[in-house]
Amino acid sequence: MHESHKSKYSIHPGSKKMYRDIKKLYWWPNIKANIATYVSKCLTYAKVKAEHQRPSRLLVQPKIPKWKWDNIMMDFVTKLPKSSQGYDTISVTVDRLTKSAIFMPMKEKDPSDKLARMYLKELYLKEAKILWYTAMLRSKV
């Protein structure tokens, strides 16, 4: 493989061309996989050969939220050992602006409407009190 890949005449071919050239003279089990591995480890091939992929676009930064809890991320940690109350999942809700997080224990089989009720109870009732209190303080100033 070394002779076939690095000779003056072949100039570091890719794995497909190298396979076509070698299979005319040699055969061994897993020949394609061996050739592909060999070519992928060749630093000269990696530097010289152009990639035939469309260049990736520029990254787009997500919009920064203006209010806390206006834009959230949710995820679930599942398959945990059951707690004494029977919970085996943790619902994780993170505010993108403040990076505050709410962790709510639940059961993996709980329906989505129960999750919605827990979320409203946990977040919006607490935040509504805070927002109302803040508004009351501002109105007195």
From TrEMBL:
Residues of the signal sequence? none
**InterPro entries per the record?**
Integrase_H2C2, RNaseH-like_sf, RNaseH_sf
> Which SUPFAM superfamilies does the annotation name?
Ribonuclease H-like
Q: Which Pfam families match?
A: Integrase_H2C2
A molecular function GO annotation: nucleic acid binding
Keyword set, alphabetical order: Nucleotidyltransferase, RNA-directed DNA polymerase, Transferase
Query: What region holds the Integrase zinc-binding domain?
Result: 1-50
Q: Does this UniProt record's set of keywords contain Nucleotidyltransferase?
A: yes
Per its UniProt record, what PANTHER family does this chain match? CHROMO DOMAIN-CONTAINING PROTEIN-RELATED, YALI0A06105P
For this entry, the protein name equals Reverse transcriptase domain-containing protein
Q: What is the lineage of its organism?
A: Eukaryota, Viridiplantae, Streptophyta, Embryophyta, Tracheophyta
